[in-house]
Amino acid sequence: MLQKDIHVGWFAFEGEKFSPTPRDYSNCLGIVAWVNPSRFAPKGKRGLILLSDAMECIWSDEYCNVDVSDKNDGWLNTQKLLAYGATHNVKFPAAEWCCSYIKNGVKKGQAFLPAVYQLKRIMVNCDKVNDALSQIGAPLISDWCWSSSSYKQTVWETAQEKLKELFSRVGLYKWSLRPLKKAHVGAMIVYTDGVVIGNLKSYRLTVRAVMSFKKKLLV
To answer: What is the C-alpha separation between 57 and 101, in angstroms, rounded?
Structure first.
């Protein structure tokens, strides 16, 4: 099956199988939530599958400044967050849950937290996606969802980073952690109507994991 034959609202199954009905194959992963209109799209950017489960959790458990400002590549953002967390002892529950998703044939590391524009594209198709989700008894998209994209660092955050560096040099690192944790801001969230705003990373919000599909294009 070529990409032009796959449509938003179709069901995605293990082994890169797709169908307009949910019972044609076993192990339904979720719903085709976006198809790239370009037939020359590279592998990894040909479409997005919204996995059937949802989670509610925080974005991160500490203030930190990670370069995850990419608005179109959630897989890259997710990998950066996991790498940062491993070396700085910081938890990123939203990204970690997506990356650890293993169900119906999804392997660990295949799913990711979508970037803000990827999530926005999914929200444009919210009605079709929710209709399909309801057919398999999966939770609908009904509220704000976390993206993996952070804000560009604010002046306040930049100042705190400089203070942290200064305090570390003079042996006051532990004392400095308490005020530094309070900022905890800068992640982007998207509503079902496509509105994008920023939010505190310590808020518990809905998380939806996605996968890219790799079906060859018709050229």
So the answer is: 14
- Please, where are the H alpha helices in 62-125? 74-88, 93-99, 116-124
| Residues 216, 3 contacting (CB under 8 angstroms) | yes
- The model's pTM is 0.82
Neighbours of 219 (CB within 10 A): 6
* HSE (side-chain half, CA atoms, 13 Å) at 55: 22
**Any idea what DSSP says for residue 54?**
-
- Please state, as a whole number, how many other Cβ atoms lie within 10 Å of the Cβ of residue 132: 27
- Tokens representing residue 208 in the block: 């939806």
Q: Taking the C-alpha atoms of 83, 46, 39 and 69 in order, what is their torsion angle to the nearest 10 degrees?
A: -40
Q: For the chain, where are the E strands, in sequence order?
A: 11-13, 17-19, 28-35, 47-51, 55-57, 145-150, 185-190, 196-200, 205-207, 210-212
Burial class (CB in 10 A: 0-12, 13-18, 19+), 161: middle
Assess contact for 74 and 112: CB atoms under 8 A.
Answer: yes
Which residues face 188 on adjacent strands? 198
State the Cα–Cα distance between residues 59 and 6, nearest whole angstrom.
Answer: 32
Which residue type sits at 190?
V
87 or 179: which carries more pLDDT confidence? Answer: 87
The most distant pair of C-alpha atoms in the chain lies apart, rounded to whole Å, by: 65
For residue range 14-64, what is the model confidence (pLDDT) as tens digits?
Answer: 988 999 999 999 899 999 999 988 777 777 678 999 999 999 999 998 877
